[in-house]
Amino acid sequence: MIYLQLFWAFFQIGLFSFGGGYAALPLISQQVISTYHWISQNTFTDLITISQMTPGPIAVNSSTFVGQYVAHLPGALIATFGCILPSCILVSLLAYFYVKYKDMKVMKTILSYLRPAVVSMIAISGISILISSFFKDSLIGISYIRYHAIIVFILCLILLRKYKMNPILVMVLAGISEVVIQMI
After folding, report:
1. Are residues 82 and 100 in the same domain?
2. Are residues 125 and 182 in the same domain?
3. 73, 25: one domain
4. Which UniProt keywords apply (predicted)?
């Protein structure tokens, strides 16, 4: 039963995650946290981090991670297949129709209306990740602020935006900073 649930959950994610991986994050969160309760919000944040650090699309990496977490290797394979199957079918169909009708005004209009929806989905995911990164629940249930995470976030923004530093190097430096803080 778990294999069917994994396939169906990630099939839906693959089917409705228009706009790429970041746009899929709310769908992934809804399925794996709210609907099936496979992982917690903190584990979801770790999942996003791991998915960003590994090569490949974030939705596919997430499906593999959750499948492995829930049902080991068979779960990883089934969840990943469920995630990519709709894309394979839809992209093949869309490529055919796009090539055939790319100059039609209605096609251009549809694409222009999808863009703001995709941007809003990305923004919601970013805000959720920021909140779970900056605030941590204590043993008594009151959130406390993770000042180190906020400082690392600001420094990473500066390194990425102002100095155009390689994102991989920025992630490595952020990881090293956390190790150093934990050792202190």
Report:
1. yes
2. no
3. yes
4. Cell membrane, Membrane, Transmembrane, Transmembrane helix
Give the gyration radius of the chain's Cα atoms. Answer: 19
- Is the pLDDT at 161 greater than 60? The verdict is yes
Exposure string for 15-41, b = 16+ CB within 10 A, e = fewer:
bebeeebbbbbbbbbebbeeebebbee
What is the C-alpha separation between 22 and 168, in angstroms, rounded?
Answer: 18
Q: Is residue 139 scored above 60 in pLDDT?
A: no
Partner residues linked to 143 by β-bridges:
137
Q: pLDDT digit string (tens) for 59-90?
A: 999 999 999 999 999 999 999 999 999 989 98
Residue 24: domain span: 2-145
pTM: 0.61
Query: 104 and 161: one domain?
Result: no
Taking Cα atoms as reference points, which of 115, 1, 122 lies closest to residue 59?
Answer: 122
